[in-house]
Amino acid sequence: MMNHTVSNKALFPETNQKIELLHNLVGKIEKVKQVVSQSKVTPKQDMQVFRRQLKSMDFNGTASLEEVIDWTLNHFKDGLVQMIHPGYMGLFNPAPTFPSEVASIISSAFNPQNCVWSHAPVSVEIESHVLKQLIKRLGLPKNSTGHFTSGGSEANATAFVGALSKIYPNFANDGVFAFKGQPCIYVSKESHLAWIKIAATTGVGRKAIRLIATDGLGRMDAQVLHKIIEQDKKEGNIPVMVVATAGTTNAGMIDPIKSSREICNQYNMWFHVDAAWGGALIVSDYYKDRLDGIELADSITIDAHKWFATTMGAGMFFTRHKQVLSNLFSVSTDYMPSNDAEQDLYVNSMLWSRRFIGLPLFMSLATVGWQGYAQHLEHGINLIAYLVKKMQGHGWQLLNQSDMAIACLIPPEGAHTPSQIVEKIVEKGEQWISVTKFEEQSVIRVCLTNGMTSSSHINGLIENLLEVSY
Ligand SMILES: Cc1ncc(COP(=O)(O)O)c(C=O)c1O
User: Which of 10, 209, 328, 412 could share a disulfide with 395, CB 3.0–4.6 Å?
Assistant: First the structure.
């Protein structure tokens, strides 16, 4: 067994030793990143070998931190789908902005407890400032509020419990016993299906979800929505919330925001906009009108760790109904230094202990401003437009008419299927793209949240797509 002095020195080394370790670490990380960005985007690790190694680490022995760092970096190099690779044109997982990477280092070093203002006045107020600036840009009323979440799923779950407690004022006390019928959530069939998990875990059950048909262009059909709500009312079910997705996961489509709001007004329902990825468009003066009507929402989800490209997990929840949050989440305990609904996050949100989630977005915004971020977004949008134009020239078709940096493509007749093509691209390992369904049709999905990708990487993708298609 290690004696206490030795273990204490390993867990909490002297300053000089830490400086040396961190200095070396930064160099090592950057070297590994360089190797990663020039090799395969897909994992090359032999997982059987890895599992054997991992199994042998039963923590009865010890190692130097340097050894553990090298081991970890080595496996990061070979054992991940690499978001930091410029060929990663896949899901909404970004190569993180460098300011956000730095922010994560700083906040880990100090580990502030952001759940209570008195423990972390500066970091709580930095988060609150960023959120206020976003509230302004979103056009929400001045007295709206927001908080950082672990991700989009938590923000969406917050929207739903908020809606339940607005419609059933007794929900926070009585839970499911407050319901006088089956509560229903209306989302498009193209929405992100975390809604199903949310329904299952909030006590309303999976059957609360109404997956509304789309209009053939990937957007929720407002007429069908209206009809299904009417039907539910006739059957004694209780329509609680409509969700418009602004930037669908498959195709970057935007559901009809204003007509969804009108329907919610008509039936006294909560209106949520899930803009987890697409919400970042508010930074661009040119593109932000695509989200018109978002300012009318009862609540909004935007993830910083998607198109804002911060380190994970950084979601955001906004609402015009401050009171709803404090009704739901307020608690009073003797061991917490305070419970002020205005500034103590543990009495306003689902999490209790929380990291300084907002620092990566703050440091990125402070470094490049709205305009710098707008350039990041527009760079992706332009590259996708370039890809689409080139592929159309080769007889490919674009199925989604999105203003965002995402294309759902199908190859010409006679070519391999989208899944065969994607399988070959991923096997080659120069790019990572995916196959999905758009309006029931199998498509190749290329998405650019990645700020490291340039036109030469898109040219590489075009070359490979043409090569593996027949
Ligand atoms: C539209 C949409 N909403 C919500 C989510 C869930 O977000 P998270 O993965 O941060 O929980 C996603 C994830 O891709 C999404 O695309």
Answer: 412
Sheet strands (E) in 108-196: 145-149, 183-188
Considering the domain architecture, whether residues 75 and 150 belong to the same structural domain is answered as no
Residue found by looking up tokens 């990487």 in the block: 457
Query: Probe ligand 1: pick from 277, 291, 351, 436, max atoms within 8 Å of CB?
Result: 277
**Average pLDDT of the residues of the chain:** 95
* 223-226: long-range pairs with CB below 8 Å, 24+: 225/186, 225/260, 225/263, 226/263
Same-domain pairing of 165 and 304? yes
Q: Report the candidate in 134, 131, 151, 132 with the shortest Cα–Cα distance to residue 288.
A: 134
The rounded Å distance from CA 274 to ligand 1 centre is 8
Report the alpha-carbon distance of residue 86 to residue 357 in Å, rounded: 26
Q: In ligand 1, which atom is closest to the CA atom of 312?
A: 10
Query: How far apart are alpha carbons 103 and 38 in whole angstroms?
Result: 26
Counting ligand 1 atoms within 8 A of each CB, the residue from 253, 272, 303 with the most, and so the one to mutate, is 303
CB of 303 sitting under 6 A from ligand 1: yes
User: Average of pLDDT values for 232-239?
Assistant: 97
Q: How many residues does the chain have?
A: 470
Q: Is 255 in the pocket of ligand 1 (CB under 6 A)?
A: no
Give the CATH number, domain containing residue 319.
3.40.640.10
- Across the range 18-43, mean pLDDT stands at 96
Ligand 1 pocket check for 239: Cβ under 6 Å: no
CA 376 – CA 371 distance, rounded (Å): 9
Using the mean position of ligand 1's atoms as its centre, give its distance from the Cα of residue 94 in Å: 13
Whether residue 383 is predicted with pLDDT greater than 60 in this model: the reply is yes
- Together in a domain, 350 and 284: yes
Contact 145, 318 (CB under 8 A): yes
What is the 65 CA–ligand 1 centroid distance (Å)? Answer: 35
Ligand 1 close to Cβ of residue 153 (< 6 A): yes
Say yes or no: CB of residue 245 within 6 Å of ligand 1. yes
What are 121-141's pLDDT values in tens digits?
999 999 999 999 999 999 999
Q: Work out the burial of residue 102: count CB atoms within 10 Å of its CB; fewer than 13 is exposed, 13-18 middle, 19 or more buried.
A: middle
Together in a domain, 263 and 383: no
Overall domain count for the chain: 3
Residue 87 lies in a domain: no
For residue 2, give the 3-state DSSP assignment: coil
